[in-house]
Specification:
two-stranded antiparallel ribbon; 4 strands; flat; disordered N terminus
Length: about 110
């Protein structure tokens, strides 16, 4: 990251790298906008890193102190297969047909 003409800038390769991680396609016309937005995000992170904590205060990672809270499972009343299938839009035999959500290739 560097300052060019007084304006914060990220290199094209840095913008490409972040876009690749986020699986975004960035047009050439959008690079300036993404450079500015990424720089702003990095500046906010820098502000957080500069905060000084007094004493032995621990950073709060979660607002909840619950650790490994489990409930007991119990078997209750169950619907019959016929009752479940009569509420489904599409069925094949004893199965509910749903839209495919997994791609056949790595292209997403």
């Amino acid at each position: 990251m560097f300052i060019k003409g007084g304006n914060p800038m990220l290199s094209k390769s840095e913008v490409d790298h972040v876009a690749d991680l986020a699986r975004l396609h960035v047009d050439d016309s959008e690079y300036e906008l993404y450079e500015k937005q990424l720089y702003d995000i990095l500046e906010e992170i820098k502000k957080i890193e500069e905060v000084e904590l007094e004493g032995d205060e621990e950073i709060m990672i979660s607002p909840s102190t619950n650790i490994n809270t489990y409930s007991n499972d119990s078997i209750g009343p169950m619907l019959s297969t016929a009752d479940v299938l009569k509420n489904a839009k599409h069925t094949v035999g004893d199965y509910i047909v749903v839209p495919r959500v997994v791609a056949d290739s790595e292209e997403i």
